[in-house]
Amino acid sequence: MTAPAVLVIGSCLILGSLGKPSFPEQEKDPKFWNTWAQQTLKNALSLQTLNQNKAKNLIFFLGDGMGVPTVTAARILKGQLSGQSGEETQLEMDKFPFVSLAKTYNTNAQVADSAGTATAFLCGVKANEGTVGVSAAAVRSQCNTTKGNEVTSILKWAKDAGKSVGLVTTTRVNHATPSASYAHSVDRDWLSDSVMPAEAVQDGCKDIARQLFENIPDINVIMGGGRKYMFPKNQVDVEYPDTAKYSGIRKDGRNLVGEWIEKMENKNGHYVWNKKQLLSLNPNNVDYLLGLFEPEDMTYDLERNPETDPSLTEMVEVAIKILKKNPNGFYLLVEGGRIDHGHHEGKAKQALYEAVEMDRAISRAGLMTSIHDTLTIVTADHSHVFNFGGYTHRGNTIFGLAPAVSDVDQKPFTAILYGNGPGYKLVNGGRENVSAIDYQENNYQAQAAVPLSMETHGGEDVAVFAKGPMAHLLHGVHEQNYIPHVMAYASCIGQNRQHCAGHNQGSRLRPALPSIAALFTLIRLLF
């Protein structure tokens, strides 16, 4: 019998006649909590035997904007979607044995953006905001600072080591996070040549969509949105032929998808743009997959058409089936990218449903791999100024009201609030009365303290969850750029491989002890 299972059985909470929340009867007994804690302790003691196997496979889940408050709120939502109170629920990432914190600042920003952070957790080097795949010596939007400042990613390290590699995202495949895997751009917004300054194009800088297909040949799996950046200007979109804003925008006349299809003609390559095409594939017959399911970002999961658009979980399942065929293993980046978009728009419900869907994808990946040879990491690039509070009762819907009205303006307020953003509204000179509107509607914009057209990122540390070989190296508080160095060390790729000699997949790794000379060198640098 597991304590969490006992806890949730029959624990759908209601408010009692006196307005006080009820909760599972067993929680009144100290034995319940003591038994649960003792079982947790037993599990923790079992972790004293560390998993020092060599990681054959690497899976990196990135919840864009998934700060700790978002993780907690998503946990509650997941439970409530299953008829539970929510607080006692476990996300899949909650089950990972090792948790640490990552410091997210960019080299030139206290509160980071997704481009600089992606360069950190994918390339192992902190960078300036707005830049991808280049060091901090590069200056945003200055093309001539690109050359010589390029940095490579763990996706390339894995590819160079003979592994299959892939990236899956709910945003555009040339958006900030995935682009740091393959691109070197001094401006994250250079998504296509048509949005680049003429002088940058003349100086030889490439748009990010083009770099996706040219920089790292033969990425095995690419899935997400972003069709319009790949096709010539005014070429109508295959799914939305009557919507001009979704037509191709490339000024150079190139059809990047067509070029990819031609290149992969004899390599078991397949291009798909809808769910039916994706799920009809036999992964055993696919070595390369390009899936572009929307002209721009993929739709929010709450608004997704389940007949035509694949979920993140479905994309991840197909990706792993293709990648795991390689006897050398694989590397897969998975981004739940629209968590961030929901928060920016002040739409907490959209953001949290995106986080819950990413948790489903984490679960699916876990069922398809083994902790003995697969290192899986879940983290965020940054947080948001999102939070929830108000002394809500146990089991209160996460999108509901606080139990008492404000003692200042005598109006109710939702538990979820933003520090800034588009949810700031004044009605007759005062705060909007949320009881007069549908605050549980999918696109409701939660109230914010400061008016902004778009809500901002938050600057606090983010959680890093890890399981599998060498996961214990992610402990304490670290710089965000430390993460790919751990992944590379665990899988014997990249620059640090002294400890790998003579070790096969699944064998134990032994740390390479530094020499006395190296220690003295380090001491001289530090003091």
TrEMBL record:
- One Gene Ontology cellular component annotation? side of membrane
Chemical reaction(s) catalysed: a phosphate monoester + H2O = an alcohol + phosphate
Q: What EC designation does it have? A: 3.1.3.1
Q: Provide the membrane topology annotation.
A: Lipid-anchor; GPI-anchor
Query: Where is this chain primarily localised?
Result: membrane
Q: Which positions bind Zn(2+)?
A: D64, D340, D381, H382, H457
The residues the entry assigns to the signal sequence are 1-19
Spell out the subcellular localization from the entry. Cell membrane
Assigned keywords, A-Z: Cell membrane, Glycoprotein, GPI-anchor, Hydrolase, Lipoprotein, Magnesium, Membrane, Metal-binding, Signal, Zinc
Gene Ontology MF annotations: alkaline phosphatase activity; metal ion binding
Q: How does the cofactor attach, per the note?
A: Binds 2 Zn(2+) ions. Binds 1 Mg(2+) ion.
**Active-site residues?**
S114 (phosphoserine intermediate)
Pfam families from the entry?
Alk_phosphatase
Positions of transmembrane segments: none
Indicate which residues the UniProt annotation says bind Mg(2+). Answer: D64, H175, T177, E335, H344
Q: Per the database entry, which stretches of residues form a coiled coil?
A: none
Q: Which PROSITE patterns match?
A: ALKALINE_PHOSPHATASE
Q: Which PANTHER family match?
A: ALKALINE PHOSPHATASE
The family line of this record is: Belongs to the alkaline phosphatase family.
Subunit comment: Homodimer.
Protein name (Swiss-Prot/TrEMBL): Alkaline phosphatase
- Protein source organism: Takifugu rubripes (Japanese pufferfish)
